[in-house]
Amino acid sequence: xxxxxxxxxxxxxxxxxxxxxxxxxxxxxxxxxxxxxxxxxxxxxxxxxxxxxxxxxxxxxxxxxxxxxxxxxxxxxxxxxxxxxxxxxxxxxxxxxxxxxxxxxxxxxxxxxxxxxxxxxxxxxxxxxxxxxxxxxxxxxxxxxxxxxxxxxxxxxxxxxxxxxxxxxxxxxxxxxxxxxxxxxxxxxxxxxxxxxxxxxxxxxxxxxxxxxxxxxxxxxxxxxxxxxxxxxxxxxxxxxxxxxxxx
Length: 248
What we know:
By secondary structure, the protein is of the alpha+beta class. It has helices at residues 5-10, 61-76, 81-97, 100-110, 117-130, 132-135, 145-157, 161-180, 211-222, 228-240, 244-247; strands at residues 18-21, 26-30, 36-44, 47-56. Helix content is 52%, strand content 11%. The chain is rod-shaped.
């Protein structure tokens, strides 16, 4: 006879563990301590097996039946439910291990041969301040474009538009590193083209107007010992006053 919610609620603990049976292999174990555990009994490769479906009341009767039916579907496809659960748990553990911060730090460490110490420190400081606190603990494979955009918009809200754009590029490199190492499937930063505010800060380079400083510059040019082309280009520049591209 199938179980009912009222029968489960009123079931009391006994001196020994006992079972209340539902249908199609589903039953409820009631321990001497009063715990009520859902279990499903099945046969796989001519062996009787059992699998846990959770605790009552967190898992209601209706939910326990749905879980039982999911397990029965696996059995119909020739899949061992216990093995499938172990594989799913292992995949989830692997996913949680490869967080954005863990992958980013690994990527950052790989740049030590090609970047200066100062640049390495600056990029890591940016990530630690602006990115890690908000999505560093997320598995990198689960991060989507809107997730990244929310984090970058936080930076923009401080008025640090240039930092936001630079960090978008840095995050793109980290995602592509993850893809290359089979830790993610795509780079969500690629979807954010045009999503950030572009702010160009004009920078003026002042000219030397003091005669003494001009003299020092000319002496520095005269004593320059670099390549033939660079040396003569420097000597010619004060005479023609053209842009570097035109001078070349």
